[in-house]
Batch of 2 targets.
Target 1
Amino acid sequence: MTTAQERLAESVRRLIDVTIRTEVDDAAVAAVTEKIDSATAQLSDSLVPGSFGVRTGPDGQSIALGNVVIGLRNPVAPPLTIRHDADGTVHTEFTLGAAYEGPPGHVHGGVCALILDHVLGATAHLPGKPAVTGTLTLRYLRGTPLGRPLRASAHVDRIEGAKTFAVGHIAGPDGVTVTAEGVFIHPKGGQRDG
Amino acid sequence: MTTAQERLAESVRRLIDVTIRTEVDDAAVAAVTEKIDSATAQLSDSLVPGSFGVRTGPDGQSIALGNVVIGLRNPVAPPLTIRHDADGTVHTEFTLGAAYEGPPGHVHGGVCALILDHVLGATAHLPGKPAVTGTLTLRYLRGTPLGRPLRASAHVDRIEGAKTFAVGHIAGPDGVTVTAEGVFIHPKGGQRDG
């Protein structure tokens, strides 16, 4: 079930897109800005300090609603839905709009890195035992288009003690755009996530 | 001078932050969502198709107002101000909030990658001759804190033909958090930026 807070985040995602692309006149932009400021004031009546963090849901699973990649309450997150396949592969399908632009018409190379860091890292996550990135290496083969269906996937290459070696890539309509390999580590105490 | 469109983006950045952190009740959240939807409709009266792209300013310089890292019109961008020092070093100082969270209280490792991709790439940019990322390798030394002053910097290690080899890092109050090295390429025709 989508919560009121998640619907708000979806609404803000649409606002972000048109904020970049609007061509209405300055007076209309200023009027909208006032409206947004008033919305911000209403939401600020009660705020958690700092950031969202990770909370534990009713089922005891940790939920990262504020996460910049997967967080349903974070308007900056596309948000990606990470799927764990039976064979241990992880994948996600998505389309990115104007908010993620680098080269004209293309996804910023660093956004590809952000997504691959998360997707490769997800192969190393275990319930209650999150992994953090040790190293990540990216190879850019071609531009990644905005507004076209994309797929990121990753799998574990090998595990050595606390280290998981993962590999993966992003592919678009014209094939693989970026490949990645990374080492992810289960820290002692297992605090971090993402 | 800050334009009306840039002020709108600043306003939406504040909205993003409180959208994640608000604890007002569901009815208040729903009322704000309606207000945001109406703002989005107003801005949608006239839109550029697709994404912002890179446009040429009055001074002939290209301006990437929609860029996800530096774009003053993009609410997802922190936005970073990239400074080119006399010795060829590039640096930027910034603080990241709730919107960029990965591990609780920390910047997502992939956001560090996004920033380092851009900052290292900036060492290779020449007027009218942007560079694209070939490869990027990141080493994560410790968590990067949210809400604390951060500094990213990079310099050119060497140039071989069309390839620029750059190195850099992000540092926080407790020292360097992530190091990076990358190879950036000037494509023939020089189309891309970021």
Note: Chain A touches chain B through 91 residues (CB under 8 Å).
Target 2
Amino acid sequence: MSKQLTVLESEVCCAPLTAATVSAEAATDLAAAFKALGDPVRLQLLSMIASADGGEACVCDLTPAFDLTGPTISHHLKVLREAGLVESDRRGTWVWYRANRPRMAALSALLDIAPAT
Amino acid sequence: MSKQLTVLESEVCCAPLTAATVSAEAATDLAAAFKALGDPVRLQLLSMIASADGGEACVCDLTPAFDLTGPTISHHLKVLREAGLVESDRRGTWVWYRANRPRMAALSALLDIAPAT
């Protein structure tokens, strides 16, 4: 089981930033996820994984898309996994990744603020 | 006029990560915004600003909520502003901040992915 930050679903899901001030505890968890998204390569990796046919992507398909070494791509995937943004399974030689959709939905809801009144 | 990263609205707005792979150019802009959100204090500041009565908050109301110095809070607000997440106006002695709602909506839409099929 990979190390993952705890998702505080009850505090996070569906409560936009305009609804109330985020608690310090929730902010720490959420900031870790946003920090993981704060890199162009990781954002592209997550995009490739989330848009892959069948909802999952093999590391063997991800690595050739970048002008980066395998270990560098593996490091970025580890950061995404530890932030709870992707989940992974090893099958034989390769590791497969899929997006953690509830986690992404919670982050989306947080930023989904109503127009100013 | 404060320095702000260009928002690539046409590429960003309303296209979730599942729709297509994010281009390298868009990923750089988006990652900068997520990186700015990747700090608990900045997330709380943005939450306080976005949820403030009238949609804007005075730096004089934000600073006392944290056990941090004024310059530290100002630095965090500058990071949020340079990432295009908040806008600011000086009125007399104080600077007032409001959330850049279209920018936040674009980030929200990006993470708003449909359930796996």
Note: Residues 43 and 115 of chain A are 26 Å apart (CA to CA).
